[in-house]
Structure formats: structure tokens, C-alpha cells
């Protein structure tokens, strides 16, 4: 009679395809805004400690960094933020840089000290570029959806004005 193997429960792993875009970060985007391996591995570890359904999910933080970098790499002197109309969280993360920056603000406070410092330095450099290339919106205080960090108080594309 064949022997039955005991059932062993293991933590479920997310396929490597979730992080497949890490190697494509160098294409056309400034290298100074590329996250280090320390940041990427600390984010991955923290993602697996959190239950799904919270503010972020596996791959979301690295996708937010990628979306932020892609937004800043756009040509032109000034950039205008875009509001996302879709109801999907991952689509909104890619389209609206303010949502990506909100997610990164949550991630910064949950990382270990060394990775936090590295990510804060990376975000400080990217934030300086965002401040330089976007304009402040003097009427942002009148719109209830514009609460949060300073990046919500920048001018949005005029097609998105209410």
C-alpha cells in the first residue's frame, strides 16, 4: 500500500510575475530615482506581513514608485496631476500620482529604520522634482477630495476640474 504524505501548510507565496517589472525600471526613467535592493526587499517583506485588503497589496508599493517615476519622466516644463475615474485601485495607482504618493507615505512609516531612511531620501528627491514641475492650486481648499499631503494641493489637468 502506498504511503500517504502528511499535509504541510505553508505560507502562500506570490508568483515572481508580481515583481517582474523591477528589471524594467531602467528603461527611459532616471536612474537616480530607482529604489535600491534594500528598499525593494524591505517592502516585499512588509507586504507579506500585512493581510490583503489593507491600504496596499503585494506589488503595490513598488508599482507606486514606478508610477511616480514615470510621471516625473514626462516631457515638458510643467506637469499637471490627473484624476482617475476608474474604480480599480491598481488603475488609479497608475493614473493618479497623488494616490501613488499617498501609498508611499503609508509604506514609509511601516519599514525598518535603514530601509525607511533610504526610501525617505528617494522620496525627498522625487518630491523636490514634483514641487519644481507642478504648480500650487490656490483654490484646492474648496474641493473636499483634495485633503491630505501637499501633493494634493497642486494643479490638476483642466479636464479634471469640477
Task: Give a description of the structure.
It is a single chain. The protein is an all-alpha fold and 162 residues long. 41% of the residues lie in helices and 0% in strands. The chain has five helices and no strands. It has helices at residues 37-49, 60-72, 89-95, 97-108, 113-133. The longest helix is centred in the C-terminal third of the chain and has 21 residues, at 113-133.
Structural class: mainly alpha
Estimate the helix proportion, in percent. Answer: 40-55%
Sequence of secondary-structure elements: HHHHH
Uncertain stretches of 5 or more adjacent residues: 9-27
User: In DSSP terms, counting alpha (H) and pi (I) runs of 4 or more, how many helices?
Assistant: 5
Measured distance between first and last alpha carbons: 72 Å
Gyration radius, in Å: 19 Å
Query: What is the molecular shape?
Result: globular
Strand content: under 5%
Main pleated sheet: none
